[in-house]
Amino acid sequence: MASRSSQINYAMGAAIVAALVVVLTFGMAAVVWAEAGSFWPTATDWAAVRFTLLQAVLSAGLSCLLAVPVARALARRYFVGRGILITLMGAPFLLPVIVAVLGLVIVFGRAGIVSDVMALFGLPPLSIYGLHGVLLAHVFFNLPLVTRMLLMGWQAIPSERFRLSASLGMTEGAVYRHLELPMLRSVLPGAAAVVFTICLTSFVVALTLGGGPGATTVELAIYKALRFDYEPARAAALSLLQFAMGAGEVALGWAVLGSTGFGVGLGRKVEMRPPRGWRFWVDILVIFIAASFLLLPLSAIVLRGIAGLADLPLGMIVALVRSFAVALTSTVLTVVAALLLALAVARKAKGAKLFDAVATLPLAVSGLVLGTGLFLTVQPYVRPEALALPVTVLVNALLSLPYVYSLLLPEARALHVDYDRLARSLALVGVARLRWVTLPRLARPLGFGAGLAASLSMGDLGVITLFAGESGTTLPLYVHRLMGAYRMEAAAGAALVLVVFSFALFVLFDGMGRRVAT
Amino acid sequence: MGWDAVLQLDRLVLTEPGFRLFADFIVPQGAKVAIIGPSGAGKSTLLNAIAGFVVPTEGRVLWQGVDLAPLDPGSLPVTILFQDQNLFPHLTVAQNLALGLSSRLRPSVQDVQRIDWALTRTGLAGLGDRRPSELSGGQVGRAALARALLRARPILLLDEPFAALGPALKAEMLALVAEVADETGATVLMVTHDPKDAQGFAALTVLVADGLAQPPVDTALLFANPPKALADYLG
Q1: Contact A336, A143 (CB under 8 A)
Q2: What is the distance between the alpha carbons of residues A162 and A158, in angstroms, rounded to a whole number?
Q3: How far apart are CA A108 and CA A114, in angstroms?
Q4: Is residue A264 within 8 Å of A156, Cβ to Cβ?
Q5: B104 in reach of chain A (CB within 8 A)
Q6: A52 or A170: which carries more pLDDT confidence?
Q7: Burial letters for B9-24: b for 16+ Cβ neighbours within 10 Å, e otherwise?
Q8: For residue A38, what pLDDT band results from cuts at 50, 70 and 90?
Q9: Nearest CA in chain A to B51
Q10: Distance from A443 to chain B by nearest Cα, in Å?
Q11: pLDDT digits (tens, 9 = 90+) for B101-159
Q12: What CATH class has A1-35+312-518?
């Protein structure tokens, strides 16, 4: 009964992972519940809730609204560098938030490039701080994401329908109404929900570009309550609020996201007739503005960063090593946990439905909520600073779990459907099956998922801000502190190092996966 | 021929939602048996039950008088060739064959010699280092058959593994299966939709229709006087 015993092992492994996830999410929610001073939020707390929801709604709306013309122009225009531009649109997702913020400050800040240009025309400099700064950063991150989702939507429209509409002599407006609008109705709600979820837990953007009573998210309020005001009870109450918002959004997302199922690659050609005349120039302008918006901050980081490399303090190396260690350890934990859950679910092991639900549970919590719970749990026994790195590893591993799991699950299911009977008939079970079939066949999503987890963990600036003392900083926190000290050249240098290593980790893991898979 | 030398389906009942199949017959050792019947009648389910992938609701599958139920599919005296996905695409042909000998994939010198022999025997000499994607459809079928040859199990189950091949290539593959079966003395059960395959390959035929897998009868006689279920199927 070898195969049955190996299935039980996966189920047991998945059960242990699921128990840990439940303890960390609901457990920390229970801790903050128990520690919460007053369940009724203060006026300041309500303001944070209102701002959090307002910026998340506006960010989602703006990102979706602006992504439609960009994706449409990219769908129907072919030009040199189009592929590179679409690939680069995946970069903001991997870009450490603190780096992107620094790039936006260099371009749109008071002493930034745009303000310099405006000064030439006698106009006052821009201010990037406040709601509009937060929105600018969120659109910078999410416009490319939504554009890619929409582009996949356009590519998923069967080319026969475009040919049919051409043969029927349909106008551009009719094609839009009958082919493109239904696709947008199908994709946009899911895209908006994704952006809303990301912005709901916005911390670094609010920390750097928000602040003050009018531009504080709940996450930022938790941080302030714990680090500056030292009001653990209030931090706990705010964490409960954040958890309630996250859980509500995840529940809503499950209902809405069911409609997004475009699984085609971005390389397929859209058979849409590109209109001529003024529309051609509008498309070109839209692509130019979107590319500039994306590339200017990235280029600014590279150019300023190179100049700032000489100015880098030695402490940066230590912070880099810490970040590396955190990223690699949390990646191993995430990948092992996601693999156990995905294999158990794909093989329909006992408890598979529960494992599937638990794997997406971390979406309901944020780093700050988990951090607050862990802070309150460990604080009576040990100095939180002493646990800064292990806690960061644990939280990063947990937060990456839903992404890596969702990458692995479809492939694990396909593997089970296609080769389970063959493997069993050849008595290929246990470690041999893992070594010769499972890992090689899942190498591609494993590599991509590991790259994603490592890159996100490397650039994370969340829970570490609650735990780290003067020492024990990671590289993103180091960049943040350099920015706080207005050492912008050094900050840009450290940011460049951070982004290079984040991307390098992604490329390394993704490349390994691809190499094994081919 | 004694009871210990047969494959016996002993009052076997297979059920799925909206589906029930009953089978109660014996297959003599070394026989070549076609399983024919309309789509959805349960031909593949019957084969999967013998291969250990489907658990019977009632009854037993016996080989040489031993109930096979407690055995894992990999421990059964059975080799099965599926409709597709018979080879792991990320492994070479030789590695796919080596899996038939040991799951450790570290073949001994003797194993390598046996793999080379099986490749040569199935007309694949020199192709051991290729991936399945680098083979033609016929060559993929030969590789799967080469592994079956190496495993040398007394029961060979064919779940339409050559259905996607053209008529000439399919006939060639079936001739190769017959040769291999004759060499190893294997009992072969082959699911097919095509009466010509049954008539060309199998001395006995099991008709599966209306929830019943009928005992094997002489193929030539069956097609000469087809019962109503078969006549309806043949049209």
Answers
A1: no
A2: 7
A3: 6
A4: yes
A5: yes
A6: A52
A7: beebebeeeeeebbbe
A8: low
A9: A425
A10: 11
A11: 988 888 899 999 999 999 998 999 999 999 999 999 889 999 999 999 898 899 999 99
A12: mainly alpha
